[in-house]
Amino acid sequence: MNRVLPTTLVLGAMLLPMLQGCVTVAAVGATQATLAAIDRRSLGTQTEDETIEWKASLEISEKAGKESHVNFTSYNRKVLVTGEVASAEIKAEVERLVAAIPQVRGVYNELAIAPATSLGTRSKDSYITTKVKARFVDAGKFNAVYVKVVTEAGVVYLLGLVTQQEADAAIQVARTTSDVQKVVTLLEIIPDAKARELGVHIEPSQPANPESIVGG
């Protein structure tokens, strides 16, 4: 089922990260709602993904130990686990606990058995994620909202519901982004027909009706 959104809402959602200065809470809320509508996941699945991440962070992070650094990213109810833990036993236990969370239908366990990364490394990872997302937008080959980017120790993970053409474009952009050490694709490929079914039809803005304008 196609969803219809006015052009102004879509442009506002895409331009908000570029704006500087103060943004009202109402504007942020409206933009988040617009991005949620553009997402190919249903609103119910988006909510489940957020709940899964919250439960995993709350219930599992502490059990991994203070020396661990664990991140949880759920997309379409499949959970990517990244970071560093002290042993193979902890890595396996984290995966078991994540898999036991209601609604989870798969786990990608990418935990490294290594000391936790420094704050400097994590800041660099955040910067890499921002660069990859920005280059998605600049390339203009697919809607950047369709691909979620996670970076851990220079390794970029790509998640999303995309066509094969969109996947190829996203992988190429990520691989050619500076400071990216490796790209791991966890993208779920959908047929073009399914993408059209899940797509958003952007309704052009209508010019104002002169008769509706009241002079001051």
Strand content: 15-25%
Number of helices: 7
SS content category: alpha/beta
Poorly predicted runs: 6-31, 201-208, 210-216
Helical fraction:
40-55%
Large-scale geometry? globular
Short description:
Helices cover 43% and strands 23% of the residues. With 216 residues, it is an alpha/beta fold. The radius of gyration is 20 Å and the shape is globular.
Would you write up a description of this structure?
The protein has helices spanning 7-15, 25-38, 43-60, 88-99, 119-139, 164-175, 192-198; strands at residues 3-6, 69-75, 78-85, 106-109, 112-113, 147-152, 155-162, 182-185, 188-189, 200-203. The protein is an alpha/beta fold and 216 residues long. The strands form three sheets. Strands 2, 3, 4 and 5 form a four-stranded mixed sheet that branches. The longest helix has 21 residues, at 119-139.
